[in-house]
Amino acid sequence: MTDFSSLGLAEPILRAVSAEGYTSPTPIQAKVIPAMMQGTDVLGIAQTGTGKTAAFVLPILNTLQQHMRPAQPMACRTLILSPTRELAAQIADNIRVYGKHTRPSVAVVVGGARIPAQIKALANGNDIVVATPGRLLDLVKNKAARLDAVETVVLDEADQMFDLGFMPQIKKIMAQLPKKRQTVLLSATMPKTVRDLAQAFLFKPLEVTVTPNSKPIDRIDQKVLMIPAGSKRDVLVDYLARDGVERAVVFTRTKRGADKVCKHLDMFGFAAAAIHGNKSQNQRTRSLNGFRSGKVTVLVATDIAARGIDVDGVSHVVNYELPNVAEAYVHRVGRTARAGRSGEALTLCDNTERGLLRDIERLIKRKIDVAETPEASGRTVVAPEERASYEVAEEKPRPTSRKPRRRKPQGAGQKQDGSQNAGRPARGHKARSGKAQGGAQRDAKPGNGQRRQKRNRRPAAAA
Which part of the chain is the Helicase ATP-binding domain (predicted)? Predict the structure, then answer.
């Protein structure tokens, strides 16, 4: 098979594929598309950037085109499960692009978005629903969604769904689907847990393995730079300022770290944006759209968003911090060298991360080449004193709740002869003054009873 027309796809779908500039299917597309069009269950293992999304979207659109019928209220004919919001949005975008001449009805159901709007989108039924497991189950429990009419279910990035702890939700969803259905499971890696899942829910599947397990794409030029942790910021700026860095993704281990790196890059004039789990859905969508359009040239992300970044033209990936799980390295560097292009991945490793680096090298079965320290870019967009004040502000400790001790004014607590306790009344002073002076004054002052009598006394004329 040398082109998409030989796969038997409908003419409107072929037109949409051709308009996107694709003429020949990738290896996984050439195997998965015919199998899905025949109704066979599929177990696909392929690394990121090999065209897995189109491999299941195109046959789904072809089936919907050939067997057109209205969807039932709150139900769908095809259900696609995704581990992250970004990946769900990316799949929906692919459906709309490849289905622009067939116009299937599509609803996206993900966490972090308004539930009333999603209930409204599901009310009349849809041809395709793209969902994250947790939000879909919430809508099913509230009787805003039905799963009894699903004809095809796709589990995309199954290994990441397991890593994120979605397996209990996946099993609940699968238990509510019709027994007679087509099931497709696609994954970048195939650990034992994912294979057990496939054995439980797939019926005589066609297993398609395109690349060895967890091996990054050979077109990626992978380098590692051993540097102290305190030098990573400056090296990152110098690396991104080089010629040829058109669009880059920088990965950090924590959400707070992503925000700090993004702020540092902003200070040096880079068009940077951060994307992680603490960002709202609108913020994450806005950052990704800016990255796709070119308004944002550096995207700082955590691992949870790694597989949802499907943007052609990412020239460089930087591992600012190494991931705790070696498999995450494969998905990080897979953001570059997509759609047949080459790419470069740089890993910044300090002494505390050497063990993580060895785990990655064991996984990919090769040593990562050592890179040279990039030359200083000379990129200065802020005054040195502003940069220094910024760095000091980042390093200052958090305030504590303990109240500071009050200092005594200079000279207080000293006698005139230089000894202590000067300026302080002598002990027993009030008592002595009360006996000597205050006694007579207390006798002269009216007591409470006397004051009350004075207030109640009437003038003589009034009497």
Answer: 33-208
